[in-house]
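Collaborator request, handled under Task 6.
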Amino acid sequence: MFFLCLAQGASAQMNYGTTGLMNMPTADMQRDKTFMAGANWLSHHATVPRWWYDTWNYSINITLFPWLEAGYLCTIFKAVPTDYGNHSGNWVPSTYGRFVNQDRSFHFRLRVWKEGWWKAWTPQVVLGANDGIGDSANGGSLTNQQDQDYGNGFWNRYYLAVTKHIAFANLGTLGAHVSWIYSNRFDNKLSDPAIGANFRFGLNEDGSWLHRAINGVNLMGELVPGYTAVREDLTFDPDGPKYQVNLGLEYAFWKDYVNAVVEWNRCRYFSGGIVFKVHLK
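Structure tokens returned to the collaborator:
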């Protein structure tokens, strides 16, 4: 029952529409046959350099088996004359400043080891890919992410995530997360670790309104790599800070069927969204 409750309470990432913290992948998995649909408003500080303006995204996601999750994400484009240093030439001038198109990406997560399979202290392990098949016409995101003018796979990364939970009686559950993230994009070259934690309250159900309200809270924090600095001329800044600290909060309404998620990127820039969950099994 303990591990079932953990699976039901897994968080959904705002930027990627998959299970995790805000920007950091974790080894948490949703309950088997869970369908998720979400939409988010994203500060440009929370996105990759391609979106130097605030934008929106929406996603659908399903946990096909207890060990396999797949998602589809769309991130909205604005029509702009200059796109982080390059003259875009892609949009009709009369549409400048308006949302006119969207970037589509696919995301996959595979659980290779379940928490507690061998010993009670053994963690859960997940392998995953975000936007792993973008730019497929040129060999996929892994092989062709050097072209600043034509490459896409803007959310491209691959990762190994490890998660361990510790339960505190009558208080809640702490999740500790470590991951290794790899990306070969020209504006986001990564081969670096990330760490994070979350605490989901689980107070005694004594019938009080206060306990019921607090038990919907999931606090999150992460230290993640990712070059997101853009200069005033909209060119990518490789000398910008590589790591950032992000804080977040998820609140579950009506059990975990409706979840509000907020993020303070670098502890100050706000993004927010909502995730709906349906358990098909």
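The cover message to the collaborator said: "The chain has one domain: 2-279. Helices lie at 2-8, 209-214. Please let us know whether this matches your experimental observations."
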